[in-house]
Amino acid sequence: MSVLAIDAGTTGVTALIVTEEGRIESRGYEEFSQHFPQPGWVEHAPEEIWQATLAACRTALDGASAPPTCVGLTNQRETAVLWDRRTLAAPRRAVVWQDRRTSGICARLREQGHEPRVSELTGLRLDPYFTATKLTWLRENDPRAWTDDIVVGTVDSYLVARLTAGARHVTDPSNASRTLLYGLASGGWESELCELFGVPERALPEIVPNYGEIGRTAPEAFLGLDLPITGMAGDQQAALFGQTCFSAGDVKCTYGTGSFLLVNTGGEIIRSRAGLLTTVAWETPSGERTYALEGAIFVTGAAVQWLRDGLGLINTAPESEAVARTVPDSGGVVFVPALTGLGAPHWDPEARGTITGITRGTTRAHLVRATLEAIAFEVRDVVETMPPVAALKADGGASSNDLLMQFQADQLGIAVERPVIQETTALGAAFLAGLGSGVWSSPEELRKTWQLDRRFEPGVRDDAAYERWQGAVRRSRA
């Protein structure tokens, strides 16, 4: 038996065929376009996400020895998508989680005194990051796109609609809990919040558990396949599951476009006063919910992409390690990659990217190294707000960078553990789907599939460099 896992990320879609031994048999990947209509605006064309999904799945299926038994799905969270419930056509581009255009709406609601109640219900804060403020902006600024036939959701909901040819309009608690419309305690959409943000509840998807039969793929829509969709979660919660962080206190950090550090808090809703978010990790078919605290860092891997695409300093993202190793340190250069504002623990949407310490002797290698160091500093900022952490499980594309992982261990003063399979977001979707379809019988069975690739032990911590980082962050804000 095997599982087809679909990971619809921010820059592309990955599809994996995962065997019952937890091994990746084949994979496919397809990028899609990033649209930047104005500074601070980020959009995706939903149809391009769907076509990339088909292409990635086709490649993965071509490399499989047998057809999969079920489908699991994970996705970039918070992105707001509108589509016609009958034709499935999207009337406009989706507003991506990185988008900052709703800063004014957040400020308005904050000035009206709504933030304490919103935080009490949702565990979140008023920030452009979350879905509801994007939906408010769309209703106020693009009303022609939102007619009675239009439904709304995040990327998971849109892809399930496409996979099932419109038969299902659903989401799961991990994605719902990122919208500013979901009540952590109630476990459902809050009418009070829907009214506040101007979102018609009838347009929202049904909330279903994270595993169990969610729907079936329609052969005419999805590569001729009739398969049960049996697992679904937002990307960071899926990575927590894929890292087998099933016990309270387990911690992982995914180094992707942004970096997201989650700690499993079990069945307890724990609220942070230090800039962490409270979120649903997953919900079982019996309704038992596991929660997490999350530190959301908006730009980490995307900063390396900027070095490649925006500045032309490197040709590929993996090249960053080799270039950075040509110098012993950053030469006093500090880069704060607040390219779309700052997330946890600062939460400043007006912050902007800042480079300090440039001298006549500064080279591209210093800037590349400063970028890798910034990723580790951003993660340290979040860990400093948390209870003591014994070890950090790392995954995501940038976790393959040995220099970054060692510097991260040095900065945190704890071991960083990298698994053999670093695509834990898609792996988590596969695990959830496999639990929902009987490929695996329990989380304990899944835990046995996790394998360590390398453990980075902490060395000497450069606190002076971290102090320079903190000073540069202060300069970048507002």
TrEMBL record:
Record domain Carbohydrate kinase FGGY N-terminal: where: 3-242
InterPro entries: ATPase_NBD, Carb_kinase_FGGY, Carb_kinase_FGGY_CS, FGGY_C, FGGY_N
Molecular-function GO terms, alphabetical: glycerol kinase activity
Record-linked Pfam families: FGGY_C, FGGY_N
Keyword Secreted carried by entry: no
Database matches in SUPFAM superfamilies: Actin-like ATPase domain
Keywords: ATP-binding, Kinase, Nucleotide-binding, Transferase
UniProt key word S-adenosyl-L-methionine: no
Domain Carbohydrate kinase FGGY C-terminal: 252-435
Record-stated family: Belongs to the FGGY kinase family.
Name listed for the protein in its UniProt record: ATP:glycerol 3-phosphotransferase
Organism: Nonomuraea africana
